[in-house]
Every structure is written in structure tokens, then in C-alpha cells.
Amino acid sequence: MPYPAPDPAAARQASAPASWAADAALSGLMLLLLLEWLYPLRRLADITEVTSIAPFAVTFVFLAAVDTLRLPGWVLWLFKTLWILGITAWLHNGQAVPSLEWWADFGRELWMDAAEGLEGNLAAWEPATRTLLFMTGWAFFISVLQTFVLERRQILWFWGMTILFLAFVQLFFTIDMFPAVLRCTGVSLLLQGLLQQGRWYDWRLEAAADGSSKARVPEARDAALKSSAAPLAGLLLTAACMAVGWLGTLLHPQEMRELDWSRYIREFEERFHSEAWNQRHAAVMANTGRTGYGSDDTRLGQPLQPDQSPAFIAVTPRLTYWRGEAKSYYTGQGWTQPDSLMVQYLADPPGWDPDAPAENAYYVPVRQTIRIQDEGLNHQLFAGGELIRVQFLQSAGGQPIPVNLVWRQLWSERIMIPVMTDPLAEYEIESLVPADRTALRALLNEVDPSYPPEIEERFLQLPDSLPERVKQLAAGIAGGESSPYAKAEAIERYLREHYTYSLHETRAVQEKEDAADRFLFEQKTGYCDHFSTAMVVLLRSVGVPARWVKGFTPGEVLAVDGEAGSERYTVQVRQNHAHSWAEVYFPSVGWVPFEPTPASGGAGSEGTAASPAAAAPSESGGGVWERTLHGVDSLLSAARAVYGGLSTAFNAVWASIRMLLSTPGISLWGKLSLGIAAAGIAALMLLIHMWTKKAGTLASSSDSISIAVHSWRRAALLRLGERMWRRLQRSYGRALPSMTLREYASSRRCRTETQRIALLRLTEQLETLHYADPDHRDTVVTRHTLAEAWRRLKQSL
């Protein structure tokens, strides 16, 4: 017999606790889907600089939980706002409860970032602001997603978005996301099955409310609802789908391979190539970069111009190379590091015992202090050798940063702090530096040493496309040597004696060219990237494990303190001191640096001056706003080119149409169809024309607004600089009329070295503000940097 529909009010009242529990269960499954968006951030830590997703995961749980409570809107968003502000403050205050002073600084930073945003300079935003916006955006999205789940009973659209995101990560970053796809699919099917059961119950309530006898639910469906058959069926369907997917991978196992986009790019160029396209491509390939420390080393050889902008100031007892990171995978065009696993730094971690290498005369422990000047380097630590201990870290706001926030990338030895942490301003480290490489001759006398399997697999890798003549040259240089050390010295000496140094007489390596082969046999001139890459490739060709390392040379000596034998050097390291070199692995001592570039001295030797030209290419391009405008201009040019091509095509098509219309035998419907097609083409051309014209007007209007805001901010900064200069003279004495800022700073008496460095930093900022190019991205002085320099000077008193 027909099932009598329940009373809606009574049903809702009786099932209130059960309904809340069901909502909580559905929200829990939804959270499992949301977490799939966070897991890749951790696996791509070298790109995202996110070493821990725990704070974000906890935030997701909190946001979903408060939405499940169905509180009033103002209460709900009050809780969310307080939580987001609190977790942001906790993260960027070194995972500690922030003080009132920190909150005041945070408010000022938000205000300045708002001004930067109006100007379009989004790249200048503080990390705390970015974290705040990231979590706020997710708070809105989670609310919308939970509304779809709990109210509209829909989740498959979000499953599709998640699958596309995981596929994107796998295709572009070569990370196996199949387990994540299985988890995502299983959770989505289970969740949708539970949501479908709720839909059936809602339909019954609606039918009862309408009083319609025709809308009653069949008895079979009611039986399924009253029992556990519906969720059990959904669970069985989910298990079956996952089992089929897993079985498919077992039947056809394949290793994860990097997707080759060259064929698609080549087909696109062949289909849409034009003279303008070819000219633009040639101009990009011939573009000259600047020296400096960058992150992209996938294509080497670009001609460079020296960049004198400061990177950092360091105090060290020995003049050492400053290691940034090593890369092991040679592609033929450049270097990558395929493994991005990050491990948390621990004080005196296992395997980093400073006492064991100290017994060897080759290593010397040193303590070094680094003060960062380039904002692009304020999340990475540079060391003079193998890092063994971090003594302290200090943020730009003057707050200490816990050492447990330091992370190390395996194999590349890149040391960094998470991007969510406040920028580094100063840090002190202990590291083991090479003392004298000649001491190795007595240690490294093994003719045929045994290497660990992971060393051979990673550091003997060469591409299959490497020309055979490179291997023949390596055998000719080092084939007569007996030990790996002798082979390394022979290749180092050969490169320094047979090739010349030049920043300009080079070009970026082309597709299907090998960077080492081109340098060794055709170009025969280049800078440090060419020499270091060639040495690593030649060493691997004769069976010697080697890796490519980049960082900085020692820098310019500003001052020498202390007595003979216990000197402390204060050095200025600039972007034109960026450098790359080779390191060779020996089982008895580890990694040993070699310097094949003729413009520099031996790696790790004392007294080596930094070569002003030995540098690695930096990432080109200005701020986000400038790159966006450049992209819009390129897009408009492409649109105009398309418009011109369509105009030519339209003229040809119109002539053909007129000929067809005059041809007897064509029906009226055929002529009408041709007319509609012609009208569609004309409308498309008109829309393209209107869009490009409107975009050009918006671009010119945005330029005017940007200029006005920039002028206002520059005037405010100059006034602030004048106030600081007056306050400086009141504290340290008046300056003579003919005295420059640097002469004034050098003539003041300082009680400590820290006070002297802080005074020099403030005068450098004031000098840059008044006399440097305000539009140059490397000489930009902001209110934040001025305030931070003045605060550091006050703290040093």
C-alpha cells in the first residue's frame, strides 16, 4: 500500500540531533576532499616554499566546523575573522603569541600593503598579508562548498575540479598523483551516495507539504531508506570503482615520465607562425639578463650584464664561497632538482657531527653572521660550507625566529625557512669550510673507490642525447689519470687553460642543443655556468660523481678586525658576485669544491676576491604589475595580428561567397546559410576590435593612476627620510656642510660592531632614497625598510 508521508515539522524536530550529526559526517568527508588541494603544496616545497600544511589543515577543519553549527552570520564570520587573524599572527611571529607591538607593526604593514595594491605592486606585499588573504579566500570558498553539500546536496562538480587540479599537478610537475585521484574518487562517490539518500528524504517532505497524492514515494524506495541498504550500496559501488582503478594500474604498470611539450609547441608554431612571431621569439632568445642569484637554471647561456646591487653583508673569520644550493639532474640545456623533499632542520642532526670532520685537517669550523639586504634572499640561508648549526635567526621586524622553522632540501642542501614566516633580516650559523685542498692529495689516493648506490644513480646521470664527442674529450683529458682526484684536477686545469671568460659572447642554448657540447666545441667562451656545467658533465663521463653548485663568491672586504690569526672580515656580497662551481664526491671526505672558471681563484681558498663577472643569471622581469602590463601588451598585439589575418581571410571568403551566390543551382536555404555564416564572422571581428580598443583605454587609465600614486608615495618617503636624518644628527652630532652621508657614518664613534653596521645600513637606505633611481626595482626603498633600519639602530644602542 502507499507509504503515508510524514509530517514535516514533526520530522525535523525529532531528527534535530541526528541531522546535526549527519551534517558533521558529511562535512568530514568534504574536508577529506579539501585536503587533497593541500597535499601537493607540501610535495612542491621547492616552488611553493610551504614546508608544513598543518596550520592550513587545522584552519580548514575549524572553518568547516563552525559552518556546520549553522550560527548566525555575524557570529559565524566573527569567529572566522578572529581565527584567521590569530593563526596568521601565530605563524608570522615565530609560532608564538604576538605582543601588542607586533600587532601595531602588523597593522602598519597591512596599510602599506593596501597602498602597494592600489599601485599594482602585489609582489611587495608582506608574507603575513599573503597568508591572511589566502586563508580568507578559502574561508569564503569553504562556506560556498558547504552550502552545496548540506543544502543543495551536490558534490560531483567539486570532485571534477579536484581531479583537474591533480591532473594538472601530475602533468606539469611530474608527480605521481594516482593515489590522490583514487582517494578523491572514493570519497566523492561515498559522499554523493550519502547526499542522494538525503535528497530522497527531502523529496518525501516536499511531497507531504504539497499534499499531493501523486508525489508519494514508492514502497520499494521507502524500504531502502528505512534500512541501511542505500548507504551500503553506495559503499559497495565506491569500493568496486576503486578496485577497478587499482587493478588497471597493476595490469599496466608504468614509471612516471615527464611530459614532453616540445611537439605540441612546435605544431602550434608551425600552424600559427608569422614574421612578427619569429621576430619576437628571436628577440626573447637574444635578450640580455643580469647577474644575480635566481631559481631557474633550466636553460643556460644567456648573455649577462653585471648587477652591482647588494645581496647581503657578512662577518666571517675566513673568506669563503657562499653555498646556496646544489642541483644534480642535467637535462642538456640546464639543471634541475627533481626531488623536492624537505626535512626539518634539527640542531646537531644525525650525520652532521662537527667533531668527526674537525679531526681532518681539510675542514675548519667557522661561525658566520649574515645580514640580508636583498628582499629576494630573505627566506634562504647561505653558508660558507656544510651547515652544522644555526645559532639564531632574526626577522625583519626584530623578532627572533625559532630554529625549528628551518628546513633543508634533501640532496640539494638548500636551507630555507617557510614562506609564511616573517622575512629574515639577520642570522648566525656554524659551518665546516674547506681549509686547504692540497691536504687531499694524501687522503684521496684510492684508485678505484666504491661509491654508495644512491650516489652513483644520482650524480653520474647524463642525458641520452649527450654527444659522443663530449665523452671522448673527457676520456682524452682524464683517461690517463689513476684516481678520481687526479681526474678532477686534470679537467679543472684543462678548462681554465683552454677556454676564455666572457659575459657577452654567448647565447642561450637552443632546443636540441647540448649546453656542454656547444661550449666545449663551438662557442669556447662563456661565464661560470658554462665552465661549471662542462666540468660536471666531463667528470660524470669518466665515472666520477659530481654536482653543480651555485651561490656567491666571497665578496668585497669592507673591514678587517682582530689580530693576526684571529681576523674577522666584514664583506659586502653583491649580485654580481653570484657564481656557480663544481663539487666532486669522495667517499672518505664527502663533497669537495673545484673551480674551473678562469676568472676566479680556487674554490674555498683564502684571499680569493670575488670576480665581478662570475655570476649566474638572475630571473628577469620587474614586478607583478609590470609583467602584467607587458603580458597585456603582448596579448593585444596578438589580437591585432589575429584581427588582421581574419580581415584578409574575410575578403577572400567574401569573394568566394559572391561567386557561389552567382552560381545557378544553389537553393534558397543554402544562400541563407552562407549569409548567416558571413554575419557571424563579421560579428566576431567587430567584437575583437571593440575588446582591443577598450583594453587599450583601460591600460592608459591604469598608467595614469599608477604614476599619481607613485609620486604621492615618493614625496611621503622623502619627508620620512628627512625626519630620520634630523633625528640621526640629534643623536650622533651634527654633520659638516661638506660631509656626505657615508662620511658622516664613518666618522661616528660606535660602541659595538652591531651598532656600526646598523648605522651604515640606515645611511645606505637614506642615500639610496635620495640619489638612486626610484624606478629601478633593485634600489627601491620603502617605508618598511626605513623603519626597520631605524629600529635596528635603536636596538644596538
UniProtKB/TrEMBL annotation:
SMART domains: TGc. Residues 597-622 are annotated as: Disordered. SUPFAM superfamilies: Cysteine proteinases (SSF54001). Residues 606-619 have a biased composition (Low complexity). Pfam families: Transglut_core. Residues 520-598 form the Transglutaminase-like domain. The chain crosses the membrane at residues 20-39, 46-65, 131-149, 155-173, 668-688. Keywords: Membrane, Transmembrane, Transmembrane helix. InterPro entries: Bact_TGase-like (IPR052901), Papain-like_cys_pep_sf (IPR038765), Transglutaminase-like (IPR002931). PANTHER family: PROTEIN-GLUTAMINE GAMMA-GLUTAMYLTRANSFERASE. This is Transglutaminase. It comes from Paenibacillus naphthalenovorans. The lineage of its organism: Bacteria, Bacillati, Bacillota, Bacilli, Bacillales.
